[in-house]
């Protein structure tokens, strides 16, 4: 299947890059827009200032190129290229204001049309193209105002050309959240350009099909990434806004998806307003997350029990734990093996985290952060709970089950996964409990023997429970290495206790903010499996200052 995909991709590249195909994209172009899309999103002044100085910062990487924009630099990740060519930075230049910002934006667009106006991999991928078209259409008045006739003519011709290609590849190039991004761009172009090749009804049918497939009954996006949840919610909110601006009836399935997705996104936020770092997601920008919720116009409290997407949110007083209770899924061809991992925060301060995603071009780091050991959960024999195969994953989903109980303000979550059954004959069962006061988070990890497996699988193996700490947390071993004292930036103290294994404090890393690497520590609880059952018990307890 992978080989067939590569062959198909190679054929498409040869076709799309040919002079004949480029000729097929030529045709009638408008000389103005039918509609200017609304833009409720906030701009980022720091990015505008960086662009003025020739600094291009995307996906955790910075390229300095003061003389010419680095459209295709060597050594950067696809995410960096996609972000640059998505053109959402136009909002930042417009927000900066002034003639200098307008001249810079126009110069960058002109250079792009000269350099990348023909098909190129990634640059003309459907999601990147959809994002770019939406940005160009939204900021067209800023770009075209007081410009020369030649710039305006070339600009509208480029929009028409890009739209024709997007209409052909919108449901072929990409899947998942990327396809929704592509459809958003095509809806913008269809409403704004008189030369658009498809009618709106056909494009909305594509959207309806994707919503039925991608949005689960609890409002979770099927890729199970908090960042993708936020991105899709914002894209759908934009689609509703432009349909309303055009006096078009908003499809009921779109309204339903927005109403379901908002509470789900709230359920994946910590007290600092950022996102939990599961399945390739970083913390994100709280201001943009707020904007996505505002654009979507959704109400509703944070969802606590999401059985379809597979997340549990446990909160009491200021303490919060979010646990991954779903199966591993492929995110843009990558799987993150973090089943039954959890994150914990207290108020606006994070305590326990996962290591987060790597955004750059170093394949070793990308691979390492997908592994189970990069998550706050259990590993057996330093093996991943999901079988990682290159950038793909084992297509056979392994069972994950969870139950939830609540009583008098206290909450129990009980979950199991079978990721270690095929190799070791062991089922991992994790229970967490948070008391009503929010000062006692207890956990229990059980490795249970599964009957019917070969006895050779039951030999003792190294067993490790990891609890990665946020970089702001200060940790020290106390009580003759029988506990760990944890100090939050506010001065609030917590203590980690455990039974069933040896407690250690080791180095770790955190990539949760902007894809940048930060040094941190992890609490490690080490033991071995037995031929029957091994139980690790642990707890995070708030230290109450004497009155």
Count of helix runs: 16
How many separate structural domains?
A: 3
CATH architecture of the largest domain: Distorted Sandwich
Overall number of strands: 23
Low-confidence stretches: 390-396
What is the top-level CATH class of the largest domain? Mainly Beta
Q: Provide mean pLDDT, rounded.
A: 92
User: Structural class of the helix and strand makeup?
Assistant: alpha+beta
CATH topology of the largest domain: Beta-galactosidase, Chain A, domain 5
Shape: elongated
Distance linking N and C termini = 66 Å
- Report the β-strand fraction as a percent range: 15-25%
Q: How helix-rich are the residues, as a percent range?
A: 25-40%
Report the biggest beta sheet as strand number plus sense, adding barrel if it closes.
9 strands, antiparallel
The value of Rg in angstroms is 25 Å
Describe the structure using short key phrases.
8-stranded antiparallel beta sheet, single chain, Beta-galactosidase, Chain A, domain 5, alpha+beta, 9-stranded antiparallel beta sheet, 547 residues, 3 domains, elongated
Can you describe this structure?
It is a single chain. By secondary structure, the protein is of the alpha+beta class. It has three domains: 22-214, no CATH class; 226-297; 311-542, Beta-galactosidase, Chain A, domain 5 (Distorted Sandwich). It has 16 helices and 23 strands. It has helices at 2-16, 19-24, 45-52, 78-86, 90-96, 99-116, 126-138, 140-144, 149-169, 176-192, 200-214, 226-245, 252-267, 286-296, 363-370, 421-424; strands at 55-58, 61-64, 305-306, 311-316, 319-324, 330-331, 334-335, 342-346, 349-353, 378-380, 388-389, 392-393, 400-407, 410-417, 426-434, 440-449, 462-469, 474-478, 483-487, 493-499, 502-510, 518-528, 533-542. Strands 3, 4, 5, 8, 9, 10, 17, 21 and 22 form a nine-stranded antiparallel beta sheet that branches. A hairpin with a 2-residue loop joins strand 11 and strand 12 (392-393). Helix 5 packs antiparallel against helix 6 (99-116). The longest helix has 21 residues, at 149-169.
């Amino acid at each position: 299947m992978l080989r067939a995909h590569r062959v198909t991709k190679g054929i498409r590249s040869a076709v799309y890059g040919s002079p004949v195909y480029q000729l097929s994209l030529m045709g009638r172009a408008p000389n103005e827009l039918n509609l200017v899309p609304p833009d409720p999103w906030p701009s980022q002044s720091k990015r505008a200032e960086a662009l003025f100085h020739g600094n291009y910062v995307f996906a955790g990487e910075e390229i300095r190129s003061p003389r010419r924009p680095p459209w295709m630099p060597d050594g950067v990740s696809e995410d960096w290229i996609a972000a640059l060519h998505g053109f959402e930075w136009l909002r930042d230049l417009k927000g900066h204001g002034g003639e200098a910002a307008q001249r810079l934006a126009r110069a960058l667009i002109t250079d792009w049309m000269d350099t990348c106006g023909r098909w190129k991999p990634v640059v003309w991928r459907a999601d990147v193209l959809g994002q770019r078209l939406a940005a160009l259409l939204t900021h067209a008045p800023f770009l075209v105002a007081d410009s020369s006739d030649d710039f305006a003519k070339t600009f509208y011709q480029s929009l028409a050309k890009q739209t024709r290609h997007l209409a052909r590849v919108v449901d072929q190039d990409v899947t998942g959240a990327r396809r929704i991004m592509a459809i958003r761009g095509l809806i913008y172009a269809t409403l704004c350009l008189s030369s658009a090749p498809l009618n709106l009804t056909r494009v909305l049918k594509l959207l309806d099909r994707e919503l039925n497939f991608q949005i689960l009954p609890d409002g979770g996006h099927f890729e199970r990434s908090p960042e993708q949840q936020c991105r899709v919610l914002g894209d759908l909110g934009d689609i509703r806004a432009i349909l309303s601006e055009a006096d078009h009836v908003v499809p009921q399935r779109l309204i339903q998806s927005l109403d379901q997705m908002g509470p789900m996104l709230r359920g994946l936020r910590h007290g600092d307003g950022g996102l939990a770092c599961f399945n390739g997601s970083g913390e994100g920008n709280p201001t943009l997350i707020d904007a996505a919720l505002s654009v979507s116009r959704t109400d509703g409290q944070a969802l606590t029990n999401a059985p379809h997407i597979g997340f549990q949110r446990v909160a009491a007083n200021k303490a919060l734990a979010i646990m991954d209770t779903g199966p591993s899924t492929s995110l843009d061809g990558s799987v993150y093996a973090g089943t039954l991992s959890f994150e914990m925060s207290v108020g606006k301060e994070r305590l326990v985290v996962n290591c987060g995603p790597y955004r750059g071009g170093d394949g070793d780091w990308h691979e390492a952060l997908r592994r189970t050991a990069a998550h706050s959960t259990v590993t057996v024999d330093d093996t991943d709970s999901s079988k990682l195969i290159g950038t793909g994953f084992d297509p056979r989903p392994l069972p994950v089950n969870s139950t939830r109980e609540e009583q008098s303000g206290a909450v129990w979550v009980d979950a199991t996964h079978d990721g270690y059954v095929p190799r070791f004959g062991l089922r991992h069962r994790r229970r967490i409990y948070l008391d009503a006061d929010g000062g006692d988070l207890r956990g229990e990890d059980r490795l249970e023997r599964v009957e019917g497996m070969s006895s050779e699988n039951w030999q003792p193996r190294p067993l490790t429970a990891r609890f990665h700490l946020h970089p702001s947390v200060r940790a020290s071993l106390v009580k003759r290495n029988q506990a760990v004292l944890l100090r939050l930036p506010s001065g609030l103290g917590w203590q980690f206790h455990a039974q069933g294994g040896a407690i250690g404090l080791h180095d770790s890393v955190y990539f949760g903010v902007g894809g940048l690497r930060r040094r941190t520590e992890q609490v490690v609880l080490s033991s071995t499996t037995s031929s029957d059952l091994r139980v690790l018990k642990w707890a995070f307890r708030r230290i109450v200052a004497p009155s």
